[in-house]
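It would be a great kindness if you could assist me with a short task in structural biology. The matter concerns a single protein, recorded as an amino acid sequence and a row of backbone structure tokens. The record follows directly beneath this note:
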Amino acid sequence: MLNKLLKYDLKWIYKVVIVLYLLSLFFALLARLFLSINNSMLFSILYQLSCGITISMLVSSLINSLMRSWVRFVKNIYKCESYLTHTLPLEKKTIYASKALSAIVCMFTTIVVAVICIFICYYYK
């Protein structure tokens, strides 16, 4: 049953965060493209702008995933959905473990995406 709880928690969290991941990857690749063109001042400015947007998307995805994990926890444990959550034939520790694992998985994927984007933006040979 932990798998089902974890699946629905991750679906709810990643509904918005995956868009931020894709946007940050897009702008990281765009920054790498502008870096390879390096002929004019315009492409240098666009490179810096794309890197800044990438970093802001990564910070936004980190904060958003943390906040969505917290909101999901509060809604399922203390708000209107809590009645349905507490009527499940599960122990409390399974419900809490599901919430904690979903937050850990989401933070881990956010860090992995951040490392990949920073590597794409700033890696030089």
Notes: The chain has four helices and no strands.
